[in-house]
Amino acid sequence: MDPKITEPDPPSYRNGMSQVLRYGEFTTTGNRKVRYAVSLTEWDLTIQKITSTPAIRSKMVLNLRDCVGSRAFRADDNTDTGAYFSAFFYPFKKRWMNSGVARQRVEQCFRVDLVKDPRANLEEAEKWARAIRECSALQQHPRNGILYSEVRRPCRAMLLVNPHSGKGQALSLFTRHVQHMLNEAGVSHTLVITERPNHARELVREADLSQWDALVIISGDGLLFEVVNGLMEREDWERAIQTPLGILPGGSGNAMAASIHHYSGAQPVSSEELLVSCGFLLCKGLVSHMDLASVHLGSASSSPTRVFSFLSVAWGFVADVDVESERYRHIGAARFTLGTLVRLASLRVYQGRLAFLPADNAGRVDGRPLCSLVVPCQNNFHNSCNSNNASRARKHEPVPADAPLKGPPDSLLVPLDQPVPSNWVVVPEDNFILVLAVYQSHLGEDFYTAPESTLNDGIIHLLYVRAGISRIALLQLFLAMGKGTHLANNCPHLVYVQVRALRLEPSSPKGLITVDGEVVEYGPVQAQVHSGLARLISR
Ligand SMILES: Nc1ncnc2c1ncn2[C@@H]1O[C@H](COP(=O)(O)OP(=O)(O)OP(=O)(O)O)[C@@H](O)[C@H]1O
């Protein structure tokens, strides 16, 4: 790994003091009559047409932060003594038809023809390409003072593709939108197409990780869940989970991809633009720490198990919509809207007990101080839960009581058959519409559930909706969640609290619980966050 980058001094170039590192005059590939003055500073590549008419001296300034790579090459035509260098940028540009901006590809290619010697021209082109790459690498400045490290260069990435994710187009989306970008950035990659559920999990559990600088998932969140858990199941889990992970959206929900796009400071975009945005982040290769939650599952019919989760634990309405809308998979992300409307029509109430360890003991829930919410915990709920969804639930290996624990110890949790510790808050209600614990900002491309969440805040953002809410109020709540304004809506049935750990003990005989969108065995579940345990390519 390369050394960490720290916050730079404020750039003086903005005052016009930027030093020109390279200057040259070149033609382009298409037209050898028109010449361009090209100058490179630490920050920008500036291109200006050389003409005797000042009025048409248009100038293009490309920010090197938007540059993914640059290369030099000779023309196929042996009689051409010139050499070329190309630089590849993905700046935010106005969309052609729509309002707003999205990252769009801009390639600048110049012909170097300084002397008759083709080798000397190629050397000069290589100097330009190298200087552009080096300057753009220096532009990987962290935001908000957060430290990032970089994926090792040249980068060797294993790309795991689930060919059935989303509308079944993950592979073609990758070929169309991302493959050329990775080539431009010099990211060498090996494509592995998954053949069945858990294939990726087994692969990374056994892989020689020294061969890879990054593991990249082209799928929805389900494949990332497999990879995270495959890494955590290894004997060398502590080292393995440090492998930088990348995500390219190929599913229908794409929560993690939507979250990292959001963290990059960009505005919401369409699905294909999201793919380009995540591809860009992957090419830039900045790595930051990501929280994982350790989730204990304990249905009445099986031994307790533990899985690692990067996104969410859901019970009630949201879990139901996620799973039931599978049948509308062919319509892509719209499946969640349709699923929401269908479930609204037959709204269910779920009984159970919820308890949590607040992130901040001085916090408040629903206008009341946390301490006023504490009620004695009687842990007699989980035994009444049936594993009614065991057939569709993902089987996870039970953790034998005497097995050495893979993964960090969960110091905040006690076994599920014991009452929660006395410093926990037990929610007085036991009728819910939904319970949602999330640790990323988005739970879908259009589902901005936890606006305050960041990748590595060490916080579980717990939202629950109490029974008694009208259908129309619930619909309004979901519409607000699309924009991330739901917490400002003062909905009396919605409670939001930041926690470090939680326990949910459903008592309704039927229901679904999902972890990162994957159905797990129905029954008591508890989780604690482990701050920054994994590493993700993001910005
Ligand atoms: N080749 C495969 N065939 C069938 N299932 C697979 C294959 N590869 C992975 N899977 C499984 O498919 C499930 C869904 O994958 P994933 O979540 O990545 O896509 P998705 O459901 O389309 O996306 P999203 O969660 O965003 O809706 C996961 O449980 C994963 O284990």
TrEMBL record:
Subcellular location: Endomembrane system
Keywords: ATP-binding, Kinase, Membrane, Nucleotide-binding, Transferase
UniProt keyword Nucleotide-binding present: yes
Cellular component terms per the entry's GO annotation: cytoplasm; endomembrane system
Primary localization: membrane
Keyword Metal-binding: no
GO biological process: one example: regulation of apoptotic process
GO MF: ATP binding; sphingosine kinase activity
EC number from the UniProt entry: 2.7.1.91
UniProt cross-references to Gene3D superfamilies, sorted A to Z: 2.60.200.40, Probable inorganic polyphosphate/atp-NAD kinase, domain 1 (3.40.50.10330)
Enzyme class: transferase
Signal peptide: none
Domain DAGKc: 152-299
InterPro entries: ATP-NAD_kinase_N, Diacylglycerol_kinase_cat_dom, Lipid_Phosphate_FormReg, NAD/diacylglycerol_kinase_sf, YegS/DAGK_C
Pfam family, one: DAGK_cat
Organism domain of life: Eukaryota
Protein name: sphingosine kinase
Origin species: Umbra pygmaea
Lineage: Eukaryota, Metazoa, Chordata, Craniata, Vertebrata
